[in-house]
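Hello,

Following up on my earlier ticket. Below are the four sequence lines again, exactly as submitted.
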Amino acid sequence: MQYDKYHNYKRFVSVDCVIFGYEQERLKLLVFKRAIEPAKGKWSLIGGWVKEEESVEDAARRVLHDITGLKDVFLEQVQTFSKPQRDPGGNVLTIAFYAMIKVEKHSNELINEFGAQWISLPELPPLIFDHDQMVQRALEKLRLKASYEMIGRQLLPEKFTITNLRNLYSEIFQKQFDPGNFRKKVLSLKILHRLDEKDMSESRKGAFYYKFRDIEEVEFVDPIFKRSI
Amino acid sequence: MQYDKYHNYKRFVSVDCVIFGYEQERLKLLVFKRAIEPAKGKWSLIGGWVKEEESVEDAARRVLHDITGLKDVFLEQVQTFSKPQRDPGGNVLTIAFYAMIKVEKHSNELINEFGAQWISLPELPPLIFDHDQMVQRALEKLRLKASYEMIGRQLLPEKFTITNLRNLYSEIFQKQFDPGNFRKKVLSLKILHRLDEKDMSESRKGAFYYKFRDIEEVEFVDPIFKRSI
DNA sequence: ATTAATAAAAGTAAAAAATACCTTTAAAAT
DNA sequence: ATTTTAAAGGTATTTTTTACTTTTATTAAT
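Thanks for your patience. The regenerated structure is below:
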């Protein structure tokens, strides 16, 4: 390697994952009891070392797979955190990711084994190191994404009602949306497909189940907000 | 250090900077003739090693200062690039940043010394490694930023005309904006302060110079696009 | 001194999008 | 048959965006 003389510029590199899920009409985060010192037993995000022969995306995907048993998870970089003192155990630079997973799909045994728990945002305990910051930035990213495209495909179960989708948005933005206007907006995007089945648990009339149309069918998705620039 | 047993997870870490400037009514990038092997003499972004005792932001700021002589430059993370084979010289993980600087303010001697050049986007030559990707992602970030807040404070000279600002936006988005509507939008944000002086070089009537109001004066800046969510 | 030329500045009308709010509907429970 | 409920489907108002027109301040030419 030509850069060997620069060996003192080497750093520990890890990834940390902010894992979003949606369960019982609440937006939740998968958090863990940390398994190693320092801060062993404290609440934290799940993370892992980045191996020499893998990219940070590969590492995050590997960590997620080890924990949830899931492949093909939605994953996006949040930001790199690199203050030399951020981790009292050593000078570790870490790349934060956020993921969205369908809670009902992942393997619970793995989660129990790792001392993990799904916790809704308002109930989230303080996390170790700068993990609270990571959560904050991940939320910002999620909100930004949700504001220019309709998300839910990665979080909601296969079939869901418009009310479920609206409630997901309420959870993400911590505000209420007008049911009629939200429905109008969502349906105008033409990304959903109505099933012939209804969810009868919430009302007399029942609410039609919908599912997201396959991405291949959807030629062009309008942004949620039309903008000129 | 408690993590010493994990020493094989150490990686070379560098930063690379996409430096935006605005000169002669064109959005430009500061690119460099690479000084070291491999790819010595080829066009590249400016980069540097991240030292053990600094954050990646500190490193990027240091690199920028060394090149331009400027402090307090606008700087934001773009994304981490980490494919093991991205740099043929070694397995280097790099955090890309983008910066905006006022071209007229920086020291030209430093730039000449480093074999640097301001080049407009359409004229940009192919860059080494994955630097073209970095430029693309930086541009996306810049566009996103410019679409929800009025930028220009970091790129334009102290005083400028609305036409200058509109032209900057045209360069960023590669499209024309209606002069009347752009003016109306910009002035409605109340972030500019009109001077009593005119630029007479572009028209008989002359165009008033403006400058950005101090950030302290500006209580709340409307986003460029009002959105509900 | 008057007029022509120019981009800046200001204004106006139409279209589109967002918002607030109202009515009807389908099914279940009484 | 009636009541109840959230869902579904409106409608009217307001706000924002877009397209286009008119006026203005100044210089240069006549």
